[in-house]
Each structure stands twice: as C-alpha cells, then as structure tokens.
What does this fold into?
Amino acid sequence: MSIKSKAYIAGVFEHPTRKADSQSLAQLHAESARGALEDAGLTRADVDGYFCAGDAPGLGGLSMADYMGLKLRHIDTTETGGSSYVIHVGHAAEAIAAGKCNVALITLAGRPRAEGMATGTAPRNYGAAAPDVAFEYPFGPTVVNQYAMAAMRHMHQYGTTSAQLAWIKVAASQHAQHNPHALLREVVTVEEVVNSPIIADPLHRLDCCVITDGGGAIVVTKPEIARSLKRPLVPVLGASEAVKHQMGGKIDLTYTGAVWSGPAAFAEAGLKPADVKYVSIYDSFTITVLITLEDLGFAPKGQGGKLVADGNLIAGVGRLPFNTDGGGLCNNHPANRGGLTKVVEAVRQLRGEAHPKVQVKNCDVALAHGTGGSLATRHGSATLIMGRE
Amino acid sequence: MAGKERTIPGPPTNPETQVFWDAAKQGKLLIKRCTACGELHHYPRAICPFCGSDRTEWTEASGRGTVYSYSVFRRAPIPYAIAYVTLAEGPTMMTNIVDCDLDAIRIGQAVRVNFKPTEDGPPVPMFSPA
It folds into this structure.
C-alpha cells in the first residue's frame, strides 16, 4: 500500500522561544500543539491520533495526552532521536490511510539551554543495560567526536575539505539573517568557519549546530479534512525510514541510512532528486548535510563537497536551496532534535510562506530528511517528500 | 603524553560479557566468532548479529589492527583521541589511541592493543602505535 497523497500536512508550528526559562517541558509541547492546530484551523477536540518521542516528559504519549486532554484512538511514540518526527509524519500518513485516525498531532519540545545541558561535548550514557555501553562509553564518545570520525573518514577517502564543509554553514547563515527568530543571524564566511576553534578534529565550532530550547508541532489530516480547511494543500507524497548501525563491526562511516530511506521515499513518490526544488536536511553538523545529500542521490558518493561548495545551497544563488530558516546550524535545534523543524520549513516553502528573501520560486516538491542518533554508531534515517496542490 | 591522565569510567559488566572482561584483566582481547556462519563480530553478543545463531564462542584476537578513523577531542579538559580500529581479524571496534603524540595519529596507521585501567571496573582495550 502506498501513502502517496493519502494524507496532508495541514498545520505546522515552530515555537518562537530559543531559551525557555519560564516554561515547563509539558507546557512547551502543549503550546506547540496549540500553534499547529491554530495554523491548520482545527481544535484540540479534532485530534484523534498523537505522536511524540523521547523528549516528551514522563510516560511520553500518555503523559502528554493527559496534560493536553486528548481523546485518542491512535498513539505512536516511535523513538529514533532527532529523526523521530520525520518518521512520525510517515507513520501518521499510514495510520490515516488505514483509517486509524483522521487528525494526527505530532509534538516536540525541550529545554537543553535552560537546563545547562552539555549537549554535544559530554559523553552520553544511555544506561548500563544498553548492550553497547561497556564497549563505547569508557572511550568518551560525545556527539561531536563521533560525527567528527565520520568527517575524518570522508576527508581521507574522498578528499573532502574543511572549506567545502564550511560552505554548508555559510549557506545556513545567509538564510538565517532573514529569520528574526534565528539564534544566530550573523552571516559568516568560509574563512570564519575554518578559523573557528576546533572542537573535535576536523570539526570546528562553526561546523556544529546551535543548542536551543523550544519545540514545534505538525498536524497531518486525511484528504477530506485538509480540503475543508483554508490552508494551502501539502500532500505527503512519499516517506521512508531506515536504521543504520555498526553491523556487528563491519563499520563504514562514509554513508548513512539515507541510502535506504531516500530511494524508497522517491520510489513511493514516483519522483527523483532532480524533481526536488527545496531540501531540508538535518544539520547537526556540516558533515551530516554533506553525507546525507550524497546518500539521497543529489551527488555521487564522494562528490558532496563539490555539490555544497560555492554557494550552491543558498536560495536564489545555488541550484539546491537548503534549510532556508537557517537550520540547526543557525536557527534552532529544539531539544537537540532537529527533525521536526525540518518539516516545518519545507511546508513553509511549499505554501509560499518562507521569508521572501529565501522563498524558492514554484516550489512544488520539497524533501525533508532527519538523522537521529549518531552517524558513527547507530542512527535512524527518515526521508519525507511533500508536494503542493 | 605526560601530565594529567584522563579518568576512564569502568565498563558496566553483565553475565553475557563477563568472560570478555575477565580476559581483559589478563591483557587478552577476545572477540566473538559464530560457529554457525563463521563470522566474527564486535561488540560481543550471545546471539550472532549476522545469522541469529546462539552458537557463538570466544576467540582471542591478535591485538593488532589499523586506524579506520579517529578524532582528537580538543575541547575536552584533557584532550583525547577516540577512534575506530579495524582488527587484523576483521571487526572494527571503538577505542582510544593512547600513549602517543595525538597530532601524529593517521588513518591506516598500524596499532596494537594496550589495556588501560579504569576508575571503577576492569581495564579496557585501547590501542597505541605498533
């Protein structure tokens, strides 16, 4: 069964806060939900399906359904880190196509800034029962040095340079200058990126995403409901997910799970990379974008450096505009999970509601891709292709 | 090289991996081999990740390998090198490269296992230039 055009993204919302000193975590989820429902022209009472991931407090979906007073007949708390919410859109479309719900609400929120979390630079320990922890945690794996190993290998194998990676940040900063909510609105140059301090070889400070509080929400509905609303119609055309891990020790850091999720999503949509007018690519680090674009088929493996260089990702300048809100590198990375905001900006582009300075002309096909977990160990990849009617 | 040493947290052990850590205390690096499909894997599991068989057995690795990738974490209070080392036997494992000039580490470099004590557990297999 295909989900193509069997569900529509009717509402999106990105919480404007970047530091939530005065809000609770549950409150941020609920405020985001209100925003997306209002955007769609729906109410809380219309929601019969709810999706959230590991950032939701307490018992996740149960706690948030309780807080928001939702009456549900479908719930899905699939957890794949920052890519969860891209997967949720696909799962919502499946549930809607199968008649399991009519209006699906997806929420995300977090307060890593307010809580002073050492997001990228402290080794993460998911508990002694995690089967990998004894064989990884003693070696100090942080988010940054794990992605750095992927970058180091890509450079070694394909000759990718720090300057090429820097172009990804430059493009994001060019876009962020137009976003009043972006955490970092200053335009930066390739020189400024490569001269910023090294965090973990070969990644510099400006190769890393921001740490922000906030959240977001998405409302997915069945076609009849979407058509009854006043918002532009954004159908889900294709969605796919994949998990890549260490494969028992046959480790290859030069590709991501996007090599599987990308082709499957394109096949469902009946489209190819050349049909895509705008891409939202998870940008935890610059290297994440480069490898993902290769894996999705926008450049041959190893040639991503050439694709991203020389302003090619800048709206109105290059041939593949990306992350026109400034992305995780400049705008927002709420809860250290950037998948949801990737979908939000893609929907803005398809509706023609992006900032005029970065709006892509005739944007009728957009792709959002999430990568959650770690490139170097295990991650969830999710590709979502959306259209405009 | 000299000066303060990074504190290494001890690995949590469990019945499935106790043999690995007992061997580590004697300076031996074990890996798992599946007698059903013949594949070697790491980290060690009771159930083979390649074929699902429970006929896995411990085998001692040579301790030799090459650096697949690495990164020196400059931002840490005491910089250290995380790495993936591909063992001569095949599997690639996460580790640290230690007792060397961190600036001289290279992909493809030959390394040899070098067990290091931990704060509150058995020693862990790190690697140094061969």
